[in-house]
Design a protein that fits this description.
By secondary structure, this protein is an alpha/beta fold. The chain has helices spanning 2-17, 19-43, 47-100, 120-123, 134-143, 155-167, 170-173, 187-197, 207-213, 242-247, and strands at residues 105-109, 145-151, 181-184, 201-204, 219-223, 236-239. It has a six-stranded parallel sheet, with helices on both faces. Helix 2 (19-43) runs antiparallel to helix 3 and helix 3 (47-100) crosses helix 5 (134-143). The longest helix is centred in the N-terminal third of the chain and has 54 residues, at 47-100. It starts with a helix and ends with a helix.
């Protein structure tokens, strides 16, 4: 236990100091050693002293190369990882932009799309944000206003939903706004909200709601985890989840 703790502490300290300061300290150390050896040689110019100097120089060169190689290995995985993450974000951003097709406003149901829960009754006990939808939601918010709408049975359910969204940092890090999360007591109320907002896109899990809105909304997305599809309207797209739809490359 002691040795493991000591090893972990040493690694943490090395990471805190950083590679550049470590190399600088090694360089100073080697300079002092060289100065001491040259002083000795100036007074004792023997073959043994020359051999000692040669051995020390060779050992120092190998030590220097080892430290540099190790430092490069420590930096490379992080740089590679950062580059991969950035590339993924760029691709996602471009895909979302293409899918939105110039849209400036979106309305989206919360249950079954943004939240793990699928009924208002569940929201009376808990509200859980789906982790896989966060990045897509943030990307969408870069290009258009998003209104999140849901039917609830009591005020406490609405507070749970807002807290779940806030704890994930969506209000802080993205374009989502708390006053654009809307609650109503009936499905007709959700339908009325959408019509009043006149979005370019509406996302919903209710086929009847989508059918009633088809002639008013430019694009709609039907979310069905089971994979069922709506084919009655040409402007209704189908997907198992919001993130799946916006991660696909073609509309």
């Amino acid at each position: 236990m002691g040795e493991s703790s000591s090893s972990s502490s040493s690694l943490s300290l090395t990471q805190q100091i950083g590679v550049a300061p470590l190399l600088k300290r090694l360089s100073k150390h080697l300079t002092r050693k060289f100065a001491k050896i040259f002083f000795i040689l100036s007074n004792h110019k023997s073959a043994g002293s020359v051999g000692a100097l040669a051995g020390f120089v060779i050992a120092s060169v190998f030590a220097w190369k080892f430290v540099r190689a190790t430092a490069g290995q420590r930096r490379r995985p992080k740089q590679t990882s950062d580059a991969a993450v950035e590339a993924t974000k760029v691709v996602l951003g471009q895909t979302v932009k293409n899918k939105l097709n110039g849209a400036r406003k979106m309305t989206c149901q919360l249950l079954g799309v943004i939240l793990e829960e699928s009924s208002p009754e569940e929201l009376q006990h808990h509200a859980t944000l789906r982790p896989s939808v966060v990045e897509v939601l943030l990307e969408i918010s870069r290009f258009c206003d998003i209104y999140l709408i849901e039917r609830i049975l009591d005020d406490e359910s609405g507070e749970r939903v807002l807290l779940a969204l806030e704890n994930t940092g969506l209000f802080k890090n993205g374009g989502l706004m708390k006053d654009k999360v809307l609650f109503c007591s009936t499905d007709n109320g959700r339908l009325s909200f959408v019509r009043q907002l006149e979005p370019d896109w509406h996302v919903d899990t209710n086929p009847d709601t989508l059918s009633q809105l088809a002639k008013f909304i430019r694009f709609q997305l039907y979310i069905s985890p089971s994979g069922s599809s709506l084919t009655s309207e040409s402007n209704i797209f189908n997907s198992k989840s919001l993130e799946s739809f916006f991660n696909e490359e073609s509309l």
